[in-house]
Amino acid sequence: MRERPGATAGTLFSKVPAVPSLPAKGDETRRFGKEMYETYIKLSTNPFYTADSPIQSTSFDQKDTLYGRKYLV
Q1: Which residues form the signal peptide (predicted)?
Q2: One-character DSSP codes across 8-72
Q3: Which end of the chain, N or C, is surrounded by fewer C-beta atoms within 10 Å?
Q4: Cβ-contact 29, 71 below 8 angstroms
C-alpha cells in the first residue's frame, strides 16, 4: 500500500503540543485517533480532493489542533 503524503503521523499530528509531564491516557488517545480518522475520511471523500496530494486545509488543521487539545493535553 502506498504511503499518502500528509497523512502520516509525523505530519498529521505535528501541530499538537507535546507535554511529557502529562501523558495521554489510552482512551483519550483512541478518541483522538477516531476523531482525526473521521475528519480525514470526510476530506478524502470530497470530490475536489486529489488522492495522494498533501492536505492543505485550514479546517483540517484547526480540527487537528482542537482535538489534540481536547484529548491529549
Answers
A1: none
A2: SHHHHTTTSPP-TTSPPPHHHHHHHHHHHHHHHHHHHTSTTPPTTPPP--HHHHHHHHHHHHHHT
A3: N
A4: yes
Domain regions of the chain by residue span: 25-46+56-73
- CB-count exposure of residue 43 (10 Å: 0-12, 13-18, 19+): middle
Q: Which residues contact 53 (CB under 8 A, 6 or more apart)?
A: 5, 6
* CB-based contacts of 55, cutoff 8 Å, min separation 6: 6, 7, 12, 40, 43
| CA gyration radius, the chain | 13
